[in-house]
Specification:
The complex is a heterodimer of chains A (155) and B (429). Chain A has 155 residues and is α/β, with parallel strands linked by helices. Chain A has one domain (15-47, 60-154): 2-Layer Sandwich (Beta Polymerase, domain 2), CATH 3.30.460.80. In chain A, 16% of the residues lie in helices and 26% in strands. Chain A contains 2 helices and 6 strands. In chain A, the strands form 2 sheets. Chain A has a 4-stranded mixed β-sheet. A two-stranded parallel ribbon of chain A has the order 5-6. In chain A, β5 (92-94), α2 and β6 (117-119) form a beta-alpha-beta unit. Residues 1-10 of chain A have low confidence and may be disordered. Chain B is mainly alpha-helical and 429 residues long. Chain B has a domain at 87-324 and 352-391: Cytochrome-c3 Hydrogenase, chain B (Orthogonal Bundle). Chain B has helices spanning 3-20, 31-39, 86-90, 98-102, 110-125, 131-160, 163-184, 206-229, 232-238, 246-251, 257-260, 268-271, 292-316, 334-339, 341-352, 393-397, 401-405, 410-420, 424-428, and strands at residues 45-50, 62-68, 71-78, 193-194, 197-198, 360-368, 371-379, 387-391. In chain B, the strands form 3 sheets. Chain B has a 3-stranded antiparallel β-sheet. Chain B has a 3-stranded antiparallel β-sheet with strand order 6-7-8. In chain B, strands 4-5 form a two-stranded antiparallel ribbon. The mean pLDDT of chain B is 86. Classes of the chains: A alpha/beta (155), B mainly alpha (429). At the A-B interface, β2, β3 and α2 of A face α1, α3, α5, β6 and β7 of B.
């Protein structure tokens, strides 16, 4: 769905690349040397309930989580989106902090909301939820409106 | 070395430096007291809390400051006090209800979130809004940029001690909001820009009202110049305070006025045009020193550029539909509902079930007053987004705070927070 040519005001088609967890840091470093000067966004998607994902190329095995890293090049004007499959039984990804320190808060948010652990992250604490919160709200098996009161003082 | 290599080298050097000598206080939210107790009374460093309830923190930002006397050493922004799970909520709202949700994120410039959301939805749908809708969106966004930057002028003035600025900034902003209210029906949280176009056509007399505003504003902005720009106390408080350079900004993912204050001309409106920005003429305002004063001056001059854009929009506003005539996305006209059963069913279906959006994923971004505001959307083919993520500029820009405040006085921390201009609704979402 990235080809939106012909529509004047629609976002230009960003390029998408699928990489493995092991290749992620290396790919980001390579892109940085090509002129991708900034990591704009790090987010994730929980594909637990998505029926029949068809947007993955055949060589990429779908996993429950997908990490989405968006970089921008100011030289070419272009954005590139890296999609990384992260399995549910081992939700760990090496941090990008050493390459782009701006990913610190973004990775903390993903860890907080999805429970994906970033190995080597300098401050692996919760960012939006209280420190003693249990669970990861943006996971698909975290129900809306059925959240028990979880603050220490009320127990 | 090419330009891209220079940038890459600068960014990688910066990354190394950040790891070694950090300005960020990386401790848990509850650890401050414990660490201080361990350090003992003889230690001159103490950890202090600023906020979350403090007028200069622009809402509910809490800062943990490691202080030596009155000097800020390391610090950490603690956020989440306004977190209401809006990205989770978005997964239960249809694409037509979505803008009511995202508009509450950045409450000082709500139309930009609506725009990013609508652009992402339209890209998935493969639907392009008609020209008039595009130009109305530009008109509204520039009006909103003016009101947002006027709000900054007001609060920044008050934070620095120029309290009368609060009144002037608020007065001008109110006039811009009144215009937005005339067009959208609401002062804030408009839900005006929707997938497929805008909610309603411009009302009668809109042209005169916009003209009245943009005729009156330049003189008022000159008054701001008299009151603030040349004022020695004001300059003393801002110049050389909270300095950042381009490499640091790029390494931290910073966009918007903070990046431009370092002399780096990057504005999505000019460099990756969306809507019809390639058809209007405007300047990208940049600073030189990357300090609080540059960030103030950039926002002031961006109001002037927005006024210039508005004048061109008035000349070029095309006639036609204000929303796309695609029956899948757009409800039938009100008059048809009275005479046609099918139109009534169609209307009912769109507002109860919503419309289905083809499966796929997309990222759409706009230049909000605070930087790049992006919407990452995943659709599974149903009538609600499978995942909706807003890349909030304030959230990323907030990471500059420890670097801007390090080594400064605690009174300068107030100037620094103000110059970053974070909107906590957008930070916490």
């Amino acid at each position: 769905m990235n080809d939106s040519s012909g529509h004047g005001s629609l976002p230009t088609g960003d390029s998408v690349r699928h990489v493995t967890r092991q290749q992620l840091a290396e790919t980001v470093a390579g892109l940085r040397d090509e002129g991708y000067a900034s990591v704009l966004d790090v987010t994730a998607v929980d594909y637990l309930e998505h029926p029949g994902r068809t947007d993955l190329p055949p060589e990429v095995a779908p996993e429950r989580f997908e990490l989405v890293v968006t970089l921008i090049s100011h030289v070419a004007p272009a954005r590139i989106r890296l999609r990384v499959q992260v399995p549910a039984d081992d939700p760990t990804v090496p941090t990008l902090f050493d390459l782009f320190p701006g990913t610190e808060a973004l990775e903390r948010e993903v860890a907080d909301m999805f429970g994906i652990v970033f190995e080597g992250h300098p401050d692996p604490t919760r960012i939006l939820m209280p420190p003693d919160w249990e669970g990861h709200p943006l996971r698909k098996d975290f129900a809306v409106g059925q959240i028990p009161v979880q603050f220490k003082a009320t127990r | 070395m090419s330009a891209s290599q220079v940038v890459a080298q600068a960014v990688s050097d910066e990354a190394v430096r950040r790891r070694d000598d950090s300005a960020v206080l990386r401790i848990g939210e509850d650890d401050g007291e414990r660490l201080e107790a361990e350090a003992g009374a003889s230690d001159t460093r103490m950890i202090m809390n600023m906020g979350p309830q403090h007028p200069s923190t622009h809402g509910v930002l809490r800062l943990m400051l490691e202080m030596e006397g009155e000097t800020v050493m390391r610090s950490k922004p603690v956020i989440g006090y306004l977190h209401t799970g809006m990205e989770k909520t978005a997964e239960t709202l249809t694409y037509l209800q979505g803008p009511t949700n995202v508009t509450r994120m950045d409450y000082a410039s709500p139309l930009f979130s609506e725009l990013a959301f609508s652009m992402a939805t339209e890209a998935l749908l493969g639907v392009a809004p008609p020209p008039r809708a595009t130009w109305i969106r530009m008109l509204m966004c520039e009006l909103n940029r003016i009101s947002s930057h006027l709000l900054f002028q007001a609060t920044n003035g008050m934070d620095i001690g120029a309290v009368s600025m609060m009144l002037y900034g608020w007065r001008e902003r109110e006039e811009a909001l009144r215009l937005l209210e005339t067009i959208t029906g609401l002062r804030m949280n408009h839900n005006y820009i929707r997938p497929g176009g805008v909610a309603a056509d411009l009302p009668d007399g809109w042209r005169d009202r916009v003209l009245t505003l943009i005729d009156a504003l330049p003189a008022r902005l000159d008054e701001f110049d008299t009151l603030l720009t040349g004022q020695p106390i004001y300059r003393e408080r801002l110049q050389g305070v909270g300095v950042i350079n381009t490499a640091e900004c790029l390494a931290l993912g910073v966009t918007g006025p903070i990046l431009r204050s370092t002399g780096y001309a990057w504005d999505l409106r000019r460099d990756m045009p969306y809507l019809a920005y390639e058809q209007v003429d405007f300047d990208v305002v940049v600073g030189t020193y990357g300090d609080c004063f540059d960030r103030y001056a950039i926002r002031l001059n961006e109001i002037r550029e927005s006024i210039a854009i508005l004048a061109q929009i008035l000349d070029q506003m095309p006639p036609g539909d204000y929303r796309v005539q695609d029956k899948k996305v757009t409800p039938p006209p009100r008059a048809r509902i009275d005479e046609s059963m099918e139109a009534l069913i169609h209307h009912f279906k769109i507002f109860t079930e919503g419309f289905k959006v083809p499966a796929g994923e997309v990222y759409a971004a706009v230049e909000s007053p605070r930087g790049e505001l992006g919407c990452y959307m995943v659709s599974d083919g149903s009538a609600v987004p499978y995942r909706m993520h807003i890349r909030a500029p304030s959230f990323v820009n907030l990471q500059t705070l420890p670097h801007l405040m390090r080594g400064g006085m605690v009174a300068d921390a107030v100037a620094v927070i103000s110059s970053v201009d974070p909107i906590m609704g957008e930070v916490d979402r």
